[in-house]
Amino acid sequence: MGINFAQELAVSGGALQLRTERTRILATNIANENTPGYQAQDMDFAAVMASAQAGADGAPQLSGDNGPLYRVPFHPSGDGNTVEIGVEQAAFAQNASDYQTSLTFLSMQLKGIAKAIAGQ
Q: What is the pLDDT of residues 24-75, one digit of tens each?
């Protein structure tokens, strides 16, 4: 009986992939804090993961209904920029913590598989 690594690591690997993509989106928002007309984006992590688990291949996809969403600002600026640095920094910090958690889960799964292979 073989181990299907793709199946065993699908959820944790997919979560890590999505956290990486969200980090990119949030970093882009922060970098464009002073760009007139820039529209801040984010993603609905839970919706994308639920969609991936319901799908046939289980791979998370950021497209269509699960694509990046535009953030609605609490205090719109006069130049049309919707980036609010405090909101973005808080989201970035929370995402970094969630990324570390996803990495820990993936590491624990790999250690468990290694123990099973070693017969421990």
A: 999 999 999 999 999 999 998 888 888 877 765 555 665 556 778 898 899 8
**Token pair recorded at residue 48:** 């994308």
**Predicted model pTM:** 0.79
Side-chain half-sphere of 74: how many Cα atoms within 13 Å? 5
Q: Which two tokens stand for residue 34?
A: 């002073």
Q: Which domain holds residue 15?
A: 5-118
* Residue whose structure tokens are 């497209």: 63
What is d(CA 14, CA 21) in angstroms, rounded to the nearest whole number? 11
CA dist 48 and 53 (Å) reads 9
